[in-house]
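[09:14] KT: can someone run the structure on this one? pasting the chain below
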Amino acid sequence: QTRGNTDVAVKQMDELATMKNHGLAAMWMISQESDLQEVKKWSESGHARFRKLMEIGLKNLEGENLLSAKVLMFSYLAEVGAYSDAGRYLAEVVPSRPDLALAAATLCRSQHDSVGLAKYSTIAERHYQAELSRQPTDIIARINLARVLMIQTKCEDAAKLLNDGYRLTKDNRLTGVTSEALLVWSDHLGASD
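[09:31] RB: done, structure tokens below
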């Protein structure tokens, strides 16, 4: 009996999304049907369904709900390799969500977009520096700031930031990223010889 009620609810939400263009219903349907971790395994009809529901959500949502939909659309487009389209969504989202500036900078770097890289890496650097000022033991902010510094080829600064963090917290997650920073630094030094 419970399963029948669930099926009825899903059918009603689907009708609300697709027939009445209800943005929140469309996003709910996506949450029920689509796993972005598995996007490479989706059928063509699965992709079409996702895009149709996203279109409804993007046209009919506002505020934080629209922002969340844009972040989801960015994630989808990046997963399927549509990087220029993904970048467009990031450009719309980053002003309100500076925590996504590192993803935007990384995307720009992969697309050889030096202007976007400079813009977003600066936003990300400011964001994570502010986070560390508020909470010096925030490991994730420290790692992300180090990654920003590596993108900016400030690998020595990244390694120092991570070593300082390790001395402060003794968190082993920092040692792996320190090794990464040293490898990037070494590659950069080799390339400039």
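[09:33] KT: thanks! The longest helix spans residues 114-134.
[09:34] RB: yep, looked fine to me
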